[in-house]
Amino acid sequence: MADSPWKNRWSKDQIRALLLEQADSFWKSDIGTPREALQKITQAASSPHAVIISGLRQVGKSTLLAQFAHQIDQDTFYYLNFEDDRFLGFTALDYNDLYEALVETFGQRQLFIIDEIQNIPGWEHFVRRFMDQGFKFYISGSNASLLSRELGTRLTGRYIPIELFPFSFREYLNFYGYPLPDFSRMKTTDQANLNAQLSAFLQSGGIPVALKYPQYSHLPTLYNDVLYRDIATRYQIEGVAQLRELSAFIMAHPASTVSFNKLKERLQIKSLNTVKSYLSYLENSWLAFTINVYDYSLKRQQIAPKKVYCIDSGLANAVGFHFSANSGHLLENLVFLQLRRSTQSVYYLNLANNGEEIDFYLPEKKIAIQVCLDLNLPDTREREIRALVSAQKVFPIERALILTHANEETISADGLQIEVCSISHWLLESGN
Length: 432
Description:
Elements: H1 5-9, H2 12-28, H3 38-43, E1 50-54, H4 61-69, E2 77-81, H5 95-106, E3 111-115, H6 123-132, E4 136-141, H7 144-154, E5 159-163, H8 169-175, H9 188-204, H10 208-212, H11 218-232, H12 241-252, E6 256-258, H13 260-267, H14 272-284, E7 288-291, H15 298-303, E8 306-310, H16 313-319, H17 327-340, E9 347-351, E10 356-362, E11 367-371, H18 378-392, E12 399-404, E13 411-413, E14 416-422, H19 423-429
Parallel strand pairs: 1-4, 1-5, 2-3, 3-4, 11-12, 12-14
Antiparallel strand pairs: 6-8, 7-8, 9-10, 10-11, 13-14
């Protein structure tokens, strides 16, 4: 094999130093607050499949890998971080030379832990070839589109995808050392404290580095890195003004219903395809999510307006321009993220006959959920109940929920049993 440009830049001793420095830094890194996703990685250890961890920049993927690494022997795995600028110019042609250097430095090992693999073109060829030889891979990446597309064609049926989100409310409480409440013995002051912690979480969000170093403006910097490095550079967008406007609109309007045509008109973007592409780029880079209306017609699902959500309320607060308090929408956004952690089958319902909407519908579990900031207002209460009752007449619903500020007795309306749950309780009890 001909020498590669990357190998020509470094001596054998320099490559060895790179590998030793990365391994030492990784092992000594702060493993932080235990992540709930760690259980999923541990469960996947017995499978021969590659484990792929994807998510937003700085969401804690490397820390999650380090947490897993500390559950196994330090001498059983190779560690590589392709975000290191010393890997600039590295290509698939260099993998054999790199593996030789790893064996010479650490001896024979059968497990790879690799950070930010999407930076290396053709990485999937190397992974598949070594998997065929019995190697196990734990891989992180920051670009959802790259991972899903290349894995779908190169590693079909041979990988376990794990999405890592910002801290959940449970992880947020653990990060600050707040004890998880005993719901069977909650006092009024306990509930007030929990509500205060939830309000703080809505404002700060769950990006670990931003919580760890609140004195620095990490969130705007993160946001710009995603826009410019993960989107504009990757997709070769020369003028990013329209992309920024679209992204800023979503950050300022989480949990809103939008249509491509209205976004095109509002932001004065000439092409409808540009709107669709930019929105897909935001999704692929984990800044935003869209969900479809649930309909028995797939075509109507696709052409109907979508609801948009952002990856983190703290990020939305840091970069989104809000004319007024946004607590209700941020709460709905928080509920969406909790649902999305466990399933991609999240929809909303639009009851065309009366214009009523259901915030979330999970068809696999036949669950309908409304999110309401204050259910004490009579008109609001009547509207939320009426919408759930109407939805049950059209769609199969086995469980109906209203998530609000406090628990209440179950409401019986037109034969439908509606649970009324505190959002903070639900977030802590709803699993990973």
